[in-house]
Amino acid sequence: MAAHGFWSLGGDNASANTGSQSPSTPRAWCQAAAQKLPGGFGSKLCALLNVAEMEKTADVPTKKPLENSAGSCGCNKPCNCPKGTVIFSDLYSTDLLPAMDGDTKTMTFLQEVVDILLAYIVESFDRETKVVDFHYPNELLQMNNWELQDEPATLDDILISCRATLKYAIKTAHPRYFNQLSTGLDMVGLAADWLTSTANTNMFTYEVAPVFVLLEYVTLKKMREIIGWSDGRGDGIFSPGGAISNMYAMLLARFKMFPEVKEKGMSSVPRLAAFTSEHSHFSIKKGAAALGIGTESVICIKADESGKLIPADLERRILEAKQKGFVPFFVSATAGTTVYGAFDPLIAISDICKKYNVWMHVDGAWGGSLLMSRRHRWKLDGVERANSVTWNPHKMMSVPLQCSALLVREEGLMQNCNQMHACYLFQQDKHYDLSYDTGDKALQCGRHVDIFKLWLMWRAKGTIGFEAQIDKCLELSEYLYNKIKDREGYEMVFDGKPQHTNVCFWYLPPGIRYMEDKEERKKHLHKVAPVIKARMMEYGTTMVSYQPQGDKVNFFRMVISNPAATFEDIDFLIEEIERLGQDL
Amino acid sequence: MAAHGFWSLGGDNASANTGSQSPSTPRAWCQAAAQKLPGGFGSKLCALLNVAEMEKTADVPTKKPLENSAGSCGCNKPCNCPKGTVIFSDLYSTDLLPAMDGDTKTMTFLQEVVDILLAYIVESFDRETKVVDFHYPNELLQMNNWELQDEPATLDDILISCRATLKYAIKTAHPRYFNQLSTGLDMVGLAADWLTSTANTNMFTYEVAPVFVLLEYVTLKKMREIIGWSDGRGDGIFSPGGAISNMYAMLLARFKMFPEVKEKGMSSVPRLAAFTSEHSHFSIKKGAAALGIGTESVICIKADESGKLIPADLERRILEAKQKGFVPFFVSATAGTTVYGAFDPLIAISDICKKYNVWMHVDGAWGGSLLMSRRHRWKLDGVERANSVTWNPHKMMSVPLQCSALLVREEGLMQNCNQMHACYLFQQDKHYDLSYDTGDKALQCGRHVDIFKLWLMWRAKGTIGFEAQIDKCLELSEYLYNKIKDREGYEMVFDGKPQHTNVCFWYLPPGIRYMEDKEERKKHLHKVAPVIKARMMEYGTTMVSYQPQGDKVNFFRMVISNPAATFEDIDFLIEEIERLGQDL
């Protein structure tokens, strides 16, 4: 078959791009460090200088000029600084390891990337820096050459691409980034993620990930202990996000009740019904659609004013479903809803689940981490009665994305539900204890190593460190709530102190504060949050989410999971909303 | 509710652990660099020294002694080297950013981690280093304190944990690591993954991942062009691995034929039948089980001696299924089977799919990358007729794990199939083009950024660079095949030159080479590969996979996707198998 014409060169010349090493053309990477920083810190200074240089250029970062101070490593004395010996504009990826004599070039290249990253990190935590340098998609597409080419780019181009990518990235570590449930950047978590990338392996067998498999075992057990399951017994897995964890739970519930579904499919099973609050996460419906259960079989239970599922309505709807011939098999209670941060009443729900013999799942993707806090874990009372729990350390515990766990009370069920015995991966005559080959209980085959960052952070903080971090975020949200609940121009979306860090409110610009026509006022108010949000992004000063919910027009949903945020950042947010919204 | 007793301290003292900065206690991080390495390379040398130090200690790495050469940064002259100013044994994670004045400590800490990683990388490519320092699970559990504690550990302990983790890790970059379809470590890919971790964001909206969303768009389009879809039109997504990509394909196929399944579930749908080769990946059955289709509805089609699906058998089984009242909806052809590396005849299969109006999926998780090679892409002739294609750049293209794409020919279908319109994430009144909010077409909610490493590697290598890398791996496998096909003591599992880099063979130790009793010989032979593999791991010299298949007893499956491997490494593998197996 003919090639499709996406190569412009006739031959394989990738190996011809091997550049040669130059004797000495440094960029004076840590020059003047001694003068500027106590203790001297070349790498940092240099990185910051790069940023300054980059900012001097146009929107599209271009090659930065190399300085001519050959032989200076930043100690202000002539020496053999490695940074001075490699010219990236002459080098290609083929010059790096595993190339012969690629060691020095590789380490210098990676060090250069690390310098860019270190500068970005320091910048991200700096309140003087923008959270985002926002551009519309079409603009951004034209701001750089993002297209893929037939020909290789030099390592210098690669470094430029790295800088450009970060220039337009959202600074998710920024103390004023509040946009998602996952915010912040933990330094130990980051280090762990760098190590994970370097180890570049796969969770399916002990053979290829011995330490990581053990750490997953240790950590899941600890999480189950914290849930309150006796001796930490049970099962679990780290999955690619809370939606997949919830889908696993639904899959297990179905298999537990109708194991024949694995071989025979849904045609062997009566019509099923799943139940979850009208405020629950959309992944419950997504899961039901994927698993062949269908979204109509997901029955939405009424929530009260503060967003908690009403148990009486759950029971009523279970009975109703049974009368219609459906088999109730799954209740997903939410511990920390996405918008209100509400905790469903787990004890009452578990009583109902027990009465009707239904699998009880707790979607604690957002709120599960409150189990780490002695002050707040009462909000999940009853979680120990659940059959399964989703808990995303990448949200409230600020573990780098992605890190989501599904914990399961019954041992062996996941394996039975999902195993396919692929003999090329899970050989039965291996020379070690095969119970550590956890891959066959997953839906995935290859599985990314998500455990190490959580484990290392836990090690670094201790349980009490996570607790302190979580408690602080909840204090900040209480501060926000107290600050605005009676403030002129604000209305709370629901009454009472929020249970999680979600503070939901309307900001009413002066112009609509006293509008008499309620419908007119509502119509205006609906447009306020999107405009303020767009302005926030254009100024780049902060980011916070908004949405409508039911018959409630667009309101702000402030969430705090960012350990970098302080009381002053909360004050700033309020001032900023007022500044950007006063003319609306 | 009372705490569960997993804290041993009464109060929140995490913040009490703030260590103070010491004036000057360096570890002479790049001492003597000038003497040892031309060009001087302190960081490298230092990192190597750390490894040497670590190896001097017992199996459990402990604190390394700090050297007393205060004021030396490795240039052999007194200076203010930053490495000398931070004592990690006095510091905790709470001293790092966002802590006040955490900049220097953070950068020094991260630099220390990077030094550990750089040393590991250099070691990994060194053939003198073991591929694995293997220990059985129970041993490894006892070799370090892996347990999670209530109290925080010092940053020094964290660095020790990083070293310990890498000490027992599999060196997947090692030129003699052949164990999985994903091997090797690309330096640009690694740099990109470090950047991805640092950017720490989520793919669901343009709002929080503007560059990455655009790069996914650009790259998916390029991949579709390479498949041969006109103007690169179509759709696609990066998913957490080939198994999930295949599950997406099956989900789309079902939705395409029966869109009502999304709301009504499988009870609205006739009994479905899916078809795939008996040599296909187990994820097809896993997906069918999860989606409520059932494994019995996956009909395994016969493969020929070399592992290719037999089209006549496919047609026969489709007709048979129809007769039994099943509705054939999905054929998954494999481009590069896991064990044999066989390519199913796509053109013949596509004719059958067209005739019976069945969705044609190509599972090219392993073999899809051959599309990048002008010499080898004919093996996928017909792929452009597929409705969907799985292609894992983390396998043959050596992109760091995980990086798997599903490409779909029909635009809009993924969105219709999976969207749930969560109004708190996919607000319809945002200020930018909403077609870039790709999250609602995924099964996941949060989605890890897997695109940047592929994009940056593509940039660095160009299409021709990937081509050269792939062609080289295929050359190596041909070399292996030629070397052993007539060599005494070897038997090939199937005749003829392999189409991918999979070389499947038995090694017959002298003792069983001339056994007359065929059953006895088979019984013995079945035990040979597991023993040799166990010995390989104990010596740590190389790793290669083995498995039985059908009635064939355990054989070695050699695969080459590691760009670091050379002809000499192939020679080594053969010598090693003979050395370790001669007494069996």
From TrEMBL, chains A, B:
Example GO biological process: gamma-aminobutyric acid biosynthetic process
InterPro entries, A to Z: PyrdxlP-dep_de-COase, PyrdxlP-dep_Trfase, PyrdxlP-dep_Trfase_major, Pyridoxal-P_BS
Keyword set, alphabetical order: Cell membrane, Cell projection, Cytoplasm, Cytoplasmic vesicle, Decarboxylase, Golgi apparatus, Lipoprotein, Lyase, Membrane, Neurotransmitter biosynthesis, Palmitate, Phosphoprotein, Pyridoxal phosphate, Synapse
Its EC number(s): 4.1.1.15
GO CC terms: cytoplasmic vesicle; cytosol; Golgi membrane; presynaptic membrane
Mode of membrane association: Peripheral membrane protein; Lipid-anchor
SUPFAM superfamilies, per database record: PLP-dependent transferases
Coiled coil: none
Location in or out of the cell: Cytoplasm, Cytosol; Cytoplasmic vesicle; Golgi apparatus membrane; Presynaptic cell membrane
Principal location: cytoplasm
Residues with PTM N6-(pyridoxal phosphate)lysine: K395
Function of the protein: Catalyzes the production of GABA.
PANTHER family: GLUTAMATE DECARBOXYLASE 2, GLUTAMATE DECARBOXYLASE-RELATED
Assembly information from the UniProt record: Homodimer.
Family: Belongs to the group II decarboxylase family.
Listed name of the protein: Glutamate decarboxylase 2
